[in-house]
Records
---
Amino acid sequence: MPTIKLTRPKLNVGEKIYFGALIKGFFLTMMHAVKSLRGKSYGAEGLASSGLGVTMQFPEQRWDDHMPEYYRGAPTLVTDEQGRERCVSCQLCEFICPPKAIKIIPSEIPSDDKWAKVEKRPFEFDIDMTRCIYCGMCEEVCPEQAIYLRKDYLITGTSRAEMVHDKKKLYEIGGVRVGLVNKWNELK
Amino acid sequence: MSDTSPATAELKLPKDIAAEKGMVNVQIDGIWHQFPKGTRMIEACRKAKVDVPYYCYHPKLTVPGNCRMCLIQMGMPPRLAPGQDPTYDENGYQTIGWMPRPAISCANSIAENMGIRTTGELVEKCREGVMEFLLINHPLDCPICDQAGECRLQEQSVGFGRGVSRFVDMKVKKPKNVDIGPRIRLDDERCIMCSRCIRFMDEVAGDPVLGFTQRGTHTTLTVHPGRLLDNNYSLNTADICPVGALTSNDFRFQMRVWFLKETPSIDVNCGTGTNIVIHTRGDTIHRITPRQNDEVNSNWMPDSHRLNFHYIDGDSRLTDVLIKEDATHRPAAWPEAIAKTAEALSQFDPSKIAIIASARMTNEELFLVRALAGELKTDQFATVPREGENDGLLIAADRNPNTTGAKLVWNSSDPSASLSAIREGVRNGSIKALLVLGEDLTAEAGFTTEDLAKPEFIASVQLLAGATAEASDVVLPGAAFTEKRGSMVNLTGRLQRLNRAVEPQGQCRDDWEILRDLAAAVSGNKPDIFLIEDLFKKVAASTPAFEGLTLSKIGHLGTVVTETGYQIPLLTNERARAAAGIING
Amino acid sequence: MPEVVTATLIDLAIIITKIVAFTFMVVLPLVPLSVYFERRFSAIIQDRVGPNRVGIPLTLFGAKKDFHLFGLVQPIADGLKLFLKEDFTPDHVRKAFYWLAPVLTVVPALITVCVVPFGPDVTLFGRTEKLVIADLDVGPLFIFAISSLTVYGITLAGWSSNSKFPFIGGVRSTAQMISYEICLGLSVIPVLLYFGDLNLNNIVQEQADNGWLLLPFWTDGKLSLPSLQTTLFMIPAFIAFIIFTVSIFAETNRMPFDLPECETELVGGYHTEYSSMKFAMFFMGEYAAMVIGSALIITLFLGGWSAGFGFDEAIANFSIGDFRIGGFIHVGIFLTKLLVFILFFILVRWTVPRFRYDQLMKLGWVIFFEAALINVFLAALIIAAPGMASTITVIGLILLAVVTAAIIWVAKVSEPPAKVLRA
């Protein structure tokens, strides 16, 4: 193990008395106080401050307009422009999900279905939003471009059961996404 | 001595030393090894712990050499000109002349002073080329393919493939989702034409219904016209299929394999005691696959045994302790049921009590049955014989998995001898109390529902609802074979272990714990065994054949404890073929 | 009814009124108020908003908007929350002491209120009453005596919790409070020497007349330059002020001396095992101590209720009819000063990082203790100088200088050499 010898910095008498640093500190904190009272805190504008400090006042002011493109909100399932549910329940998201929030029960698509050639789809697809940590791993791992993190961030509920998003709810939030790779359209 | 030995060593070349032992010297990736003469290159590489990828090769089947994945670079000493003496390097080996073209390692045997390279540009390029050809028509089915996660094509594509496809044309379309048999689904697009399934059905199952039609990229695996892949060994083709072309209907879309926990155990459907792996997730069993044990079941398993696990979490599974009151059963707690059973049994004269045990129970449980009979002072205890037909492969005529164990633990030549006497006793009323362990008496035991109404008291350890459970005054829910630990002895006299893959359902308990508590309640003592390991030690101490064994010493492949002379037909076939050099064995 | 009994009853009623008014209507409300200021001020310092929502929930009664009062109701909501929380007594504590400890922290802090002069006397209904609960002649001593009891509460809390973090917190607190009480007592001696009185009301009156201790710019109610002696005395007065203020910080366990409950090391310190109202009592005790400490500093050094600059006489005599109620204006002045000083407390908390424990002990024992001792002699010399021969004064000064130098030298020599740190 490399050893680095450090010595404490030599302080002069003024520094040792410590009062100068104290006064400097008071000045600094008071500067911040004055700035935030005037709504001129550093970064206040970019964060759409409510006028005091940099904070945005939530229910009245909303994030929505300030959300970056890469924002990761609630994970959802999407359908494509042909109305096909893209998920084939490969369960890779269930596997990768760090907090184990996803639960999938696969099922076979009946042979009379239009998309019978896809063979497999989820029977149940539950995401427990009390567990979800919005890491986006499910989106990254999905081989079918079926799961996306949307910008919905207000995921609330009055019971645990309500916080479990089932397949219906997931498609409802996810909606239709266009311009995806449609590998199942090939002649089969 | 010190000055003579180098001279002798110089005289004796490695090839001569090896030849004395019937071995040959082979250099694999620069290191010299010795292997028996006639070993296949691929087996030599495996023994040298060098990875050679392959698809079509299977040690228990003939070698067609058609997947070309196991290509290696081979080298031999250069051929000598007439009159030229071979030259040896300081270690006594001849220089190897490497061939400029690859060879398949599965179909070629090793020779003296041979060299094998499993790395290097030639081999790597070859594998990359083979992978690219295999993937040209392979569909992008991985997200829906049950094989994903245990697919050789996936693994070797990652290991040896080029990562990107250069193929721009349309893929060849073939039949998908073909119903070729009651338990097997075929997807021809995924097939890589390794022909393992064809060879298995022909050579091992003896039911050659599969074959290829068409040629070139249009080669299609199919079942013989008018026939179905309905052999009782058909699911083994799904096991050996390196890709997802053949998949099991039963396991279809149930669970991805990477979620499954694998527990080694043994099958309890017949006396062969097939070695199995139980695949579970949480407390659900998703499938059972055979586990290689060349002394028991080779790599195979009959479908009927493999699929016989759905009853474990089926609707008729008993999960509550039940006590009968006024002709109906009510749920109860364990202490109450045990106490009630012990109290009821102690009210009868020992000659009026009989115990019907099962040869499906483990050695430990059978040992406790005898101990309980001792506590009750009755000698009327028997197992129920269960006879079927020997299918000439793996399924034995004796459908009880532990008949040999019962013989050894109870030290009797026929554990089921007194069953008919008990049956008669029940019928004529001389037996008033019946303790039934893990058997439905109306099935193989030959009782009728009327017979079961005769005894004054019946207590039974039951897995499933049925006539016996219905007639019982106390029903104690036992554990299924996937839920318990213990040991059994198969027909060849091999002691093997059961392992717990899932927790017992509901209130169910390990049978040995139930028996221990019953015996304790009858005798009035406190139970003194708390671990199955300790129980096995007791069994071993009182059974000469198990002497010196512990549960962990049995090992995953079992230990032979007695000679019975029984031969498993499938192994006889396999050994004959190995001796004839048809397979590697 | 005999006249004596009536007079006694009236006296009693007045005392009870004063107690209720000053303790429960002035000091106790200051506690939630300082909590609010603490949160709000710290938020503003850190570019945040702080509690600004809790007000009067008019929407509950059908109105369209709530009246949020800048979040002033927040401390009440917090208090209500603490009140409604489960009062959990862990199984492993020593129950009697565990229950006693919070009381022992909050009661002494409130008792000390009784000698703090909130204003000069007022005349109502022909009676002249001082605006102080008990006009004791030993004011500062009483405060020291009572407030040193607080340490029992904290020590008992730490010990009776029977758990390691509270125990360490309690031990730290005991050592810290005992150490700083010495500095506290010594630093206030020059002030008492100067005023020659231990009655806090008289001390404030003196400051109102002849200038605050740290601001002596008027004499007998008229602006004037201070005399040489007063000017010279500002040196020991200022030293005393600093030592006293810092010691009060230490005594009240405030940042930067909050080692007994430092969250990063000790979870919650001595009150880790407390919940609900028992925790709230510790909380209240701490803030009450802060209020009393500020009040004491203001009283001793910054003129107490006095407005200064010669306005006091006029304000004190302000009357409506027969009621001379100028004293209440002084109470207002006192409270204003108090609030400003509390804000200073808060500013310090959110500016200065926590000391290390050895630094804290060194500051108390090696620096403040000696400095306060020397300060006592210096103050005595300045006060006694006019009555002594100049040679004696000079000799005294030289002696003091030598002693000071000697102490500094000893402190320097005894200091262990700087350690080489390894990283």
Note: The interface with chain A takes residues 140, 142-144, 148, 170-171, 173, 176-177, 252-256, 258-259 of chain B (CB under 8 Å).
---
Amino acid sequence: MFILDIVSSILLFAGIFFGLSGAFGLFKFPDFFTRVHAASVTDSIATILILFGLILQTSFDINTAKLLFILAFLMITSPTASHALAKSARHGGLLTLPEANAKQQEQTR
Amino acid sequence: MGELIDLVLLAMLAITAIRIIFLKDLFAVVMLFGIYSFLSALIFINLDAVDVAFTEASVGAGISTVLMLGTLALTNRKEKESSHSSILPLLVVCITGAALIYGTLDMPPFGHPNNPVHEHVAPRYIEESPKEVGLPNMVTSVLASYRGFDTLGETVVVFAAVIGVLSLLGVRRQEENDTPESGFRAHHVLQVVARVVIPLIILFALYVQFHGDFGPGGGFQAGVIAAAAFILYSLVFGLSSAFAVVGPKFLQLLASIGVLLYASVGLFSIYKGGQFLDYNKLAADPIVGQHYGIIIIELGVGITVFAVMLSIFYAFGSQAERSNIR
């Protein structure tokens, strides 16, 4: 039981770290697409780690199954959400930072 | 620890509310409203009010965000600058707020066990409902049985909302099918994932509907979740393919069937010799009668809420499509 608690808290803290780094990147990254990338870190790896940490805290009953269901659902939906966001922005004509810089240089020439 | 979480959540709630007031971009305001609802759902969970939290998360953060985005598609994204000064409204709000805060000084202390709210009917619900209704989830017993008449009123209010929206906006007539395809036609990933996810969402809605007697859930949440599945379908595959699955006319029929189902349980219990919505008379054993009554009225609530939410989305969506053509 003791080992499980240690592993669980390691997973939880790793999840917190990735969640925080995602939030940090959301504010610090320069353009939209890198920000989506940062936000998807929170969606994917942080939720996986936190949910696995929580699964180790359960007594392996119905709650474990529920958490696994949530995990499966999030694994399907959150990458899709990030993808849809980025693709819609691309369709709407948003450029990445290097592309925008190149375009600006062409215009100034 | 619980108080610390409460304080953090309430502080975030206040920050969100203040941000909502000062933002002019209504799209961001709608998103902040979603965050606001999620934060209040978390506070409810911390208060052990799981059913309320569930409703707040599904209705407040889920469906009303979608409906408000639909409204934004019809109107403008930016808030208009108000022309008149804001000093008088500010004064009125401050005076009213001060009066309300003064009023709270006379309220009984928060969370005290001898408060009137804990002494009136709550002890009876807690002590008698396992014997009288026999459901593990006491919230469902109170909502559907003791307060069945109130819940009927809520269902009628939801039904009245759809009548109001439809009489203002109306749904596109069936013959105007030559409109351009909406939906994310190019989003193949979205389409594949939606095909996987939509059945799961409907399955979860049915679970919430029929598990409401035993755990958090019930008709309101289940109807909203089922409506969310169909809204996802119409967003991804286009409104006209959603009309082919469940048409607007059928939804209007469903919305009234739900309310009628609820009210007819009441009338049937009168016919059986009880009072309106007296489930004890529905079967020979009062407890079995209660269970029958609660399952049927929750089904009525679920059907109505589902049909109403989807109808309102259809009304907004077809209006937005029509204005895109012009």
Note: Chain B touches chain A at residues 184, 186-187, 189-190, 193, 196-197, 200 (CB under 8 Å).
---
Amino acid sequence: MLASSVLFFGAASVSAESFKWASNTDPQTMDPHAVNSAPVLSFLNNIYEGLVRRNQSMTIEGSLAESWEPLDGENGWRFHLRRGVTFQDGAEFNAEDVMFSYQRASNEAADVRSWFAPVKDVRIVDDYTIDFVTNAPNPLFPDSIANFMILDKGWAEANGADLPARDAENHATMNVNGTGPFTLSSRDPGVKTVLVPNDGWWDTVAHNVTEATFTPIGNAATGLAALLSGEIDFIQPIPLQDVAQVESRDGFNVLEGEETRVIMFGFGHEHDELLYSSDVSGKNPFQDVRVRLAAAHALDIASIDRVLFRGKIEAASQLVPADISGYSEANSDRPAYDPDRAKALLAEAGYPNGFSFGLKCPNDRYINDEALCRAAASMFAAVGMNAELSTGPVRDYWPQLRADEFDMYLLGWSPGTFDMEHPIRFLMSTPNKEKKLGSWNFGGYSNARVDDLLPGIQQEIDPAARQAMVDEVVSITQEEVAYIPLYTQPLIWAAKDNIDLTQRADNFFMLRWVTVN
Amino acid sequence: MAYFILKRLVQSIFVMMAVAFLAFSLFRFVGDPITQMTGVETSVADQERLRQELGLNDPFVLQFARFTRDMLQGDFGYSYRTRQPVGEMIATRIPATLELGIVALLISLLVGIPTGVFTALRPQGFATQTILLTTLVGVSIPTFVIGILLIFLFGVQLGWLPTFGRGGTIHLGAWESSLFTINGLRALLLPAITLGVYQLTLTMRLVRAEMMEVLRSDYIRFGMARGVPMHRLYFKHALANTMVPVITIIGLQFGGVIAFSIVTESVFQWPGMGLLFLESIRFVDIPVMGVYLVVIAFFFVLVNLIVDLLYVAIDPRLRVNGTS
């Protein structure tokens, strides 16, 4: 309390190592297995650690595991654990904790259990060696568990936190005991969370923070004011329209990057008729690939970039940005802006005068999502496709998409594993509840060849052979215009200019890379 | 008297139940809590299982009945978002909202009543016209714009006052108060002004109108004729008579101040009930929304009760009627 009181008297007198930051969402829980959401996982990566972790350029490196290798004679991976690591309460870390955390995180009460769907069995070899046996060869498995955080078995069991809190809170909801660089000093949910360094951390300390205070600030203007008044040192994100205002002031930096999220339009492939059309009934023009291609040619990404995004977006040709593994170099072209070709394609498909349809968009999920859809609707209209736009908050949006209430819709996708396989599995595979495939493929896009290729992409060890399969999938889905990829969403953070930090493409903020100068 | 209070409190239970019923009939239009509670990778089957476990597939009447039964047993349930007990979550947020509301009310009364009297006594003066015009601008601008303007002026440009949060607070038992530290009061000032500005204008204009009315009445003229000192006439006789309608309106408005402090709390990241409610809407946190609305309904009933009691205290005629 006192420290924060002192700050209010003079922003300039901040002590060099205390660091205050804000974001728009409070992590809902301190339990690393209860919720699979970016605000929680990003925050808890400062406190807990996984077997592997991502470095500043998103590459996987050893964390609680020093090394790992494929198992001999069966599918899966062997992890060699780091010795001499202790939890923040002093307990020693070993394979028992990994086993316990696996059981906890793959339990029905855990929201992160989907990470372990490919796992058949986990075996402790010795105190510092553990095997994860998978159903099929799984070269991506180590990459897919970078956010699988390890809890101390003894601590969790002693405090009745054996399972993640699903219905009611338990000890792990508000308390932590990780191996990571920081530990929890105090927590007031939705108001303030204070972290202090973990003196016993095993790795070399690269930050100089002695106390880090996090405040959620939901209102963007308030967050900006808090930064400009000097009450906080760093905020993620800031709205695009405030970039100029921050840049124009002395003492502040705007950090810009590309997120891994690609924004796209999707179609109701499996709908036999349009739901929101005033002039077409009994059929769905979007089932004709020429109409989908016409829609792609109607969109002028350069203008959208200039007018709505101040030149900060990167046009996308496929469902992942270029720096994601599996990105198909061979298919890096996207349909050019060509309204005449769009009109010709529509005429060819039997709609010389165009048609009307319903376009669904969220208005609080992606940067400028509603404005984007308005711009797109007018571009569609210019070639004769009259989009009846309806927008709504995201809490209402997903249920509508799940209920198939759209002709065309907007979606953003960030590959959780940072590999092309992720969008192929979730967005391009024929929806199949049992196999847990295509769960976000709302339009029901289906191509037998893509479905056939997916297991190969998941299991192939040889990078060239794997990339050939990915290239084929991307090529098929581009040819069939399964989606219209639009652009990669920008990532915009702002900080005082005495702060050095790392902006990672997954929008995670790591305190261990912060230096207060 | 005790019977009167008891009767009103019993009535409040029905009001709260009616509010809860309406709320529950609307919740299914707010959105789907499951998609907010689970990550993108969660399988559809797991989502369905969770939906079933939370009873979200049940008809709303059943959900409402369950909610009411638990409430009557003192069980407020657990938040979908944080998994914390809802009663505790709301209870820890009540002091922030109440202090903000009460200070806003005090500001509006302490500034509004004197300026109201002043502008009534000098209806044509230049100062009066200026005050009336400024306050008109004040009520015409939406609350959040006033808040942002104040923040950028006093927080960012001048750097005098904090832009968000409660500043320094101290614990008085379970009550976390910002009234007893300098920093707490500094943090409280801007949000309280933002929240109180509408009330202030209303109070001022009400006092002015009533006062002008009363000043024209016969007993004031008789008083003047008898040579009663003017300040005694204005501030004792006239003001007392203007206060009856003013208290009613201001009192009733206070319920609204508490209920609609949501906007102010959001602009100033003020950790009160309103901010919690806003976060809960965004997340479709049905248990928190339900309990919040019931608590707000209770506040309304309570404020109305207090207004009725104040009436009796101020107006002696009601006292005679009440006891006869």
Note: DSSP finds 16 helices and 19 strands in chain A.
